[in-house]
Amino acid sequence: MKIICVGRNYAKHIEELQNERPVEPVVFLKPDTSILPKNMPFFIPDFSNDIHHEVEILVRINRVGKYIESRFAHKYYEEIGLGIDFTARDVQAQLKEKGLPWEKAKAFDGSAVIGNFVNKNDFSSLNSINFELTNNGNSVQKGNTAEMLWKIDDIIAYVSQYFTLKIGDIIFTGTPEGVAKVNTNDVLEGFIEGKQMFKINVK
Ligand code: ZN
């Protein structure tokens, strides 16, 4: 399986990192080795002093597809989840400066938290889902899928032009504002509409 991530999909997060607003989605991949095993803590890697949390709505693909049209994209997933795209912001800043690929900052071991999934039919609309990340019980990131620049079906249409989607592939749909550094002993909990989807200890 593969993990396809969209960057810069929420306007206020683009502003907080002082990035340009993209005319097309920013896309990058994480390998399967980036998945943090269930119930394991996240260990801050030695190569970074500035690991950020990015809480994101996830989509799990359940049909093979390529060149999927946006209006048919809903047929390619049943479940929505929540996860974290851990990012070594200091490493990413160096790579960005040189125009180099982001993998060292985004695709390292443990950088993909994949929490629980829920059936998409549990929501009246996929374009108004509230989600939240807390750190040690304090709210640090809050988002609503209404704020996405590219909606889930648009993302599927866009990325499937380049990558054949396969059963089990996961799409990270971008993070809202509030990204921040994680520290040892932090406890990160993610919620969709108030329901807990993951709990991660940082070591
Ligand atoms: Zn992200």
Secondary structure elements and pairings:
Elements: E1 3-7, H1 11-16, E2 26-30, E3 51-53, E4 55-61, E5 77-85, E6 87-88, H2 89-98, H3 103-106, E7 112-119, E8 130-135, E9 138-144, H4 152-159, E10 170-172, E11 180-181, E12 187-192, E13 195-201
Parallel strand pairs: 1-10
Antiparallel strand pairs: 1-2, 3-6, 3-11, 4-5, 4-10, 5-7, 8-9, 8-12, 12-13
This protein binds zinc ion.
Zinc ion (ZN) binds at residues 5, 7, 54, 56, 85, 172, 174-175.
Report on the structure:
The structure is a single chain. The chain is α+β, with helices and mostly antiparallel strands and 203 residues long. The protein has a single domain (3-201), classed as Alpha-Beta Complex (Fumarylacetoacetate hydrolase, domain 2). Helix content is 14%, strand content 34%. It contains 4 helices and 13 strands. The protein has helices at residues 11-16, 89-98, 103-106, 152-159, and strands spanning 3-7, 26-30, 51-53, 55-61, 77-85, 87-88, 112-119, 130-135, 138-144, 170-172, 180-181, 187-192, 195-201. A 6-stranded mixed β-sheet has the order 2-1-10-4-5-7, covered by helices on one side. The chain has a 4-stranded antiparallel β-sheet with strand order 9-8-12-13, with no helix packed on it. It is globular and about 45 Å long. It binds zinc ion (ZN).
